[in-house]
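User: Structure please.
Assistant: Input sequence and predicted structure:
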Amino acid sequence: MALEETVLDGENMTNLLKANWDISCASYRKLPIGTANCFTVNDGSNTYFLKEYQSYIEDCDIIREESILEKLKNYEIPSTDFIETVSREKMVKYKGHRFVLQKYMSGQSYGYNDFPEEMLPQMAVMLAKIHIALKDMELPVDMDAAWVNGDAVSKYDNILEVLEQHREDSLYKQIKEDLLYKRTVLQKNQNIFRRYFEGITYSPSHGDYQGCQIIGENNRIKAVIDFTSARKLPVVWELMRSFVQTSHNSRNNAKIDLQDLRHYVKAYCEYFPLSDKDLNAMPYVYVFQLLRSTYGYKEYLLSNSEDREGLISFAFWRTKICKEVLGHIDEIVENMMKVREECDWCNLTEKKKEYLLFTTDFWSAYLADEQDYVGRCVLVLKRHCGSLSELTDKEWLDLRYVVKCMESCFKSVLGATMCNWSCLMNSFYKESSPNPHLHLHVRPRFKNPIVINGNQYVDEEFGHHYDRNQNSKIAPEDRQTLYEWMKNNLKGYG
């Protein structure tokens, strides 16, 4: 949905690349997605990404984007780099537009309707990590007090006047119905919506976070791209918008799956906790911005975009989403508040259960996601319970049995020297309303190296306390092998 026609043709493309980056253009392809004009360029051996910004984008916006990319590197959040010109510049001005050349990121790019559903929790977590990485950056503020309290109804009056000049348009009736609907709802409810902005969390953010800004590989996020729209924003706006603009049910049917939305928000909150006020405000903040926006209608009626049909289709979809949110706003709030109440261990996803080793009457043992120590497992009580002191006699006896089984497995299968057991649960108490669920971590410790699939792993801190800040050190295929070894050894214990 490029907003403006490109100023490039084949000859201009060739001249631009050669003069500024000393790159020959053997071939290029215009990409079908995004509001800017984007191209892949090949010089015969290497592929690059060329971005032609919209005319309203200024130098400061691009300089800011470069700073953000550098900041993300420090937090190991992958993105793309700007390539300097022959004169050591990062940006080129040509025919009234600004251009940057970036390293081409190989991998899977996504359209507006084909982001893998199973990757949505990853996407939520990555957004949280972006917010953590950018927390100290000075960015322009969007949806500030002036915006919240400003007049938006007059925009509709103006665009409705413009519409009357297009009465012969086949879409005239639908456009008018949509605009009048949004204007009416906005005028009636704007004072109510405004109150939900009081005291909510703002954070430097991507600004246009959705599936089409993700590069994937093997169903994992490889990179996040396009930080041109980065601003300081209400966290819950970007969070809900990113879900709605990426989820298949939302994009294809203009329907919001409340359970999927809850899981998405929950995955985010595991890294960047939100207050009750934030969660309660989420649908109101999201829909207020939608109601205030005439995007798509205005561009269809007034712009020279190459994709006017795409823009008006997007506008119609946004109005449908407005109606969907407003029609289920109480249910959405109810589901968001469940994020605070739900217990991760009582509501394990099938993905989390994938590495179940064995289960007894009272306990379940899982190979941990993060293998900071090879063989690290999590032992979870099957009922909700807040502390060791609340265990029944039968649960204590069963725990003794499980510990003997696990340690025997670690020693016989992996050659572990000893095991570190811990029951900490500190993370639960970061919340204003903690809801702990009893679980234990066990980290086998090794005096001698472990070899899995020919790869050697060394316990470098052996003889010392474990380090909670270690990164996972085991290759994915070795984790799978480790799981199979342990599961086979523990067969029949449950």
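The chain has a mean pLDDT of 91.
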